[in-house]
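Project outcomes to date are best conveyed with an example. Our students and postdoctoral researchers have been running inverse folding experiments weekly, and each run begins with a structure described purely in tokens. The record below, which covers 219 residues, was selected by the lab manager from last quarter's runs and is presented without edits.
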């Protein structure tokens, strides 16, 4: 049953919602617009590039997360989830996992290629991909939390980023620190550990908070 639920969510993300194509198209569009701006100015893109990539990844997550619960609420699937023997917290983890696989994983896979656009070194490209791999699960989980609080509201698309943005700051900070580190830097391992710990803490807490928010929004 769990496998069937994950398969359903992946099919909806890749095909039904158009989540993958929307997120990837948005990410690539913003990156290339930024590259054009770099050609028009003399800014050192290798300095501002990491911030652009992380911020654009976050925005891609935010614009694709709304459909994960809102469409289920519209077609009645959400009611069946509440009656399912599977705990709602676990269902939300599966939905966040499907969102991460469909939006963040493609971005992680193409991030080394994008890094060359920013004139990153090989080591910086690897650190960028590793940082995204460790940090982006937090993006999807926190977005799920925001959606669970706002899906029933008219202006959910505006309120959700406002509510969740402060929770993204630690991940963004340590994600950027990883790229700026070197293999010989003693702080690199610590920064990667902290970023992974943030993700683990998010996995442990956010599903329960999202489930509570979901029930409160329905009531």
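After processing, the design step wrote out the following sequence:
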């Amino acid at each position: 049953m769990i496998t069937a639920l994950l398969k359903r969510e992946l099919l909806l993300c890749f095909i039904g919602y158009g989540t993958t194509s929307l997120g990837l198209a948005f990410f690539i569009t913003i990156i290339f617009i930024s590259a054009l701006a770099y050609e028009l100015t003399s800014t050192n893109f290798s300095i501002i590039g990491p911030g652009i990539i992380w911020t654009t990844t976050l925005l891609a997550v935010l614009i694709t997360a709304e459909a994960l619960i809102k469409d289920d609420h519209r077609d009645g699937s959400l009611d069946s989830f509440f009656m399912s023997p599977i705990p709602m917290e676990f269902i939300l983890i599966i939905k966040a996992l499907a969102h991460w696989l469909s939006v963040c994983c493609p971005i992680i896979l193409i991030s080394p290629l994008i890094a060359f656009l920013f004139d990153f070194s090989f080591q910086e490209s690897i650190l960028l991909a590793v940082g995204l791999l460790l940090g982006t699960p937090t993006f999807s989980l926190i977005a799920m939390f925001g959606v669970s609080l706002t899906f029933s509201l008219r202006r959910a698309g505006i309120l959700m980023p406002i509510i969740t943005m402060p929770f993204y700051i630690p991940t963004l900070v340590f994600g950027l620190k990883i790229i700026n580190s070197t293999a010989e830097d003693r702080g690199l391992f610590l920064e990667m550990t902290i970023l992974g710990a943030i993700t683990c803490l998010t996995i442990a807490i956010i599903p329960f908070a999202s489930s509570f928010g979901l029930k409160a929004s329905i009531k």
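The chain has a mean pLDDT of 83. Residues 2-218 form one domain. The training component of this project remains on track.
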